[in-house]
UniProtKB/TrEMBL annotation:
It is an enzyme of class 2 (transferase). This is Diaminobutyrate--2-oxoglutarate transaminase. Its EC number is 2.6.1.76. Gene3D superfamilies: Aspartate Aminotransferase, domain 1, Type I PLP-dependent aspartate aminotransferase-like (Major domain). The keyword Transferase applies. The lineage of its organism: Bacteria, Bacillati, Chloroflexota, Chloroflexia, Herpetosiphonales. The gene is ectB. Pathway: Amine and polyamine biosynthesis; ectoine biosynthesis; L-ectoine from L-aspartate 4-semialdehyde: step 1/3.
């Protein structure tokens, strides 16, 4: 393992790009190429990717299977931009998505194509829930992350993100998530109580929005029984249940949707990031038919017709024709969890781990505020890209492409283990 010693040229970025740039500050090199679970900088140094484009690259960088289909489409002079007009590429995706994903799971969702970001899908889902119910307020959960547009920020818990809004963020009530700092508070019992108490002063919400795994919030996994209880509560009170599957959907937990293991069916589901299969901009809202009450053009977006994304998404669905891919994810997940349990946790009793499938977090909070940043920076110096999340950014998030090779996963884990060992040793000196 060697540190990056070559001087990189970032003059153009420093001179011309806005100060809002973020990830480049954590991973300070100029990337040029990528393949699978490896990124290469301009000096051709390889980096193992435990970041996967913040969850947008579940099928890896430049997936050859998807790339070939995209190249063929590009060379054919077919439609590239179509707004929401009927196109061959859109029809192929809709038919394939229903055949491979929705119909086998008995999910008769209607598909809304919105602006091509996860935040836009959240905005659309919130608007639709309010339209359907005629109610205004929304319930979200502490630690939740749903995007940085104003509607997304209103249901996002992070104080630093919310502070940048510049206007009051209203019409949201936050409840404790069933895992995390306030997990001892029974949020479902509280909600049931205030909804049935005529003197609670609590207005019935239009919707409840949640992530089954709070990824940016620190890798907290909601219990199955809690998710089922939440579904029943929404049914009893006529509340729209929105599942934000933008980061932990599309196979991240092993099944295509993160809520499948709980046996629940949300009323609305937001998808983005890896739904396009290739890192192309695309976002969807899946809508139970009875809630599809939009009037034409009530929620539009110039790039809701990204034809190339439709083509990539259709090709990516080939992975889900059988259960082979899901089984492979579970095998890799078991390898990762075994490493964390047997190799990493024993290094220090202050460490904790949380996760499911191929999204796991290592919580360094008890080692002090400097630990996670120092370890992330040294991992990068040793050729491993890994992100920090959670309160105080104290959690290292392991989120490799779902297609990562077992040996490369082990190699990345070995780097992480060595860096953590070295850091722990340095703090005892």
């Amino acid at each position: 393992m060697q540190r990056e010693i070559t001087t990189i040229n970032t003059t153009a970025f420093d001179q011309y790009e806005s100060n809002v740039r973020s990830y480049c500050r954590s991973f300070p090199t100029v990337f040029r190429q990528a393949q699978g679970a490896l990124l290469y900088n301009e000096q051709q140094r390889a980096y193992i990717d435990f970041f996967a484009g913040a969850g947008a690259l579940n099928y890896g960088h430049n997936n050859p299977q998807i790339k070939q289909v995209l190249l063929e489409y590009l060379e054919s002079d077919q439609i590239m931009h179509g707004l929401d007009m009927y196109t061959s590429a859109k029809r192929s995706f809709l038919e394939r998505f229903n055949q491979v994903i929705l119909a086998p799971r008995n999910l008769p969702y209607k598909v809304q194509f919105c602006g091509p970001t996860g935040a836009n899908a959240v905005e659309a889902a919130l608007k639709l829930a309010r339209k359907v119910t005629g109610r205004t307020s929304v319930i979200s959960f502490m630690g939740g992350y749903h995007g940085l547009s104003l509607g997304g920020l209103a249901v996002t818990g992070n104080a630093d993100h919310r502070a940048a809004a510049g206007v009051p963020l209203a019409h949201t009530n936050f409840l404790p998530y069933p895992r995390g700092p306030l997990a001892a508070i029974d949020s479902l019992n509280y909600l049931e109580t205030v909804l049935t108490d005529t003197h609670s002063g609590f207005d019935k919400p239009a919707a409840i929005i949640l992530e089954t795994i709070q990824a940016e919030g620190g890798i907290y996994v909601a219990p199955t029984e809690w998710l089922q209880g939440l579904r029943h509560l929404c049914d009893r009170h006529g509340i729209v249940l929105i599942c934000d599957d933008i980061q932990v959907g599309c196979g991240r937990t092993g099944s295509f949707f993160s809520f499948e293991d709980a046996g629940i069916v949300p009323d609305l589901v937001t998808l983005s990031k890896s739904i396009s299969g290739y890192g192309l901009p695309m976002a969807l809202v899946l809508i139970k038919p009875e809630y599809d009450q939009w009037q034409p053009a009530e929620h539009t977006g110039t790039f809701r017709g990204n034809q190339l994304a439709f083509v990539g998404a259709t090709a990516a669905l080939d992975y889900w024709q059988t259960d082979t891919f899901s089984k492979a994810i579970h095998t890799l997940a078991q390898q990762l969890e075994t490493f964390l349990q047997t190799q990493l946790l024993p290094l220090d009793q202050r460490l904790t781990i949380r996760g499911k499938g191929l999204v796991w977090g290592i919580d360094f909070a008890e080692l002090g505020p400097a630990a996670s940043k120092a370890i992330m920076q040294e991992c990068f110096a040793q050729g491993l890209i890994i992100e920090r999340v959670g309160r105080g950014d104290s959690v290292l998030k392991i989120m490799p492409p779902l297609t990562i090779d077992s040996a490369l996963l082990a190699q990345g884990c070995a780097i992480l283990q060595q860096v953590v060992q070295t850091y722990l040793a340095s703090t005892k000196e």
